[in-house]
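SAMPLE LOG
Freezer: B-3
Tube label: C17
Construct: single chain, 247 aa
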Amino acid sequence: MNIKVALITGATGGLGQALAKVLLDDGYQLILTSRDTTRLNTIYGDKHLQIQADCSTVEGAKHIFSEITAHNLIPVVFAHCVGNIRLGALHRMTENDFNECMQANLYSAFYTLARFITHLKTAKLGGSAVLVSSAAAKIGTPNHEAISAAKSGLEGLVRGAAATYASNNIRVNAVAPGILDTPAASNLIASDASREMAARQYPIGGIGNAEDVAQLMAWLLSEQASRVTGQIWSIDGGFSSIRPIVK
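STRUCTURE (predicted):
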């Protein structure tokens, strides 16, 4: 029996960890990457192939796949969970913060997806990738200019890559959540007041959780979604499509 291999970048984040659990239950052998090997080892012990790399650079993305090749593995599914949240009005955002936002959210996706697809084409295999966008890419949200720009670029990348590689049976999709109850958003919902205010923004009230998003990502990576490509799946409690009832 062939063992299915999955690559998860950003595997130490809340979403990466949730997805790792789902894919492991689905029978995948995992390849996990992070910039922090100590956190990788703390979370996963000595299980799975763990690779330290900064995939927001070309060299980092290449390093991931050189390690994968050295271990004679061919991941047929790829989940890109790397990103950060940089908020701030346009006129106050520093060049450094903007560049870091673009590198973490857009460049990392471009570089790693390119290497994943190259790896599949070399092996003459089909496969599936899922990236992480944001509700802020679809609807204007105050102080989200940088993250909106980065995630809108990511959504364009998804559609373009899906079109280019559909004939190779390589599918590319993305999920677009609202605020999730993960460490990445901890500063935004640090107090009871800020959590309550954030939760009220959503037509379906409350804060999203990584487990629900991970389930959707796993489905998009699976054969059950074999006819789905080039799609951005909102999972944001209706935030980007309908307005909440104001009470």
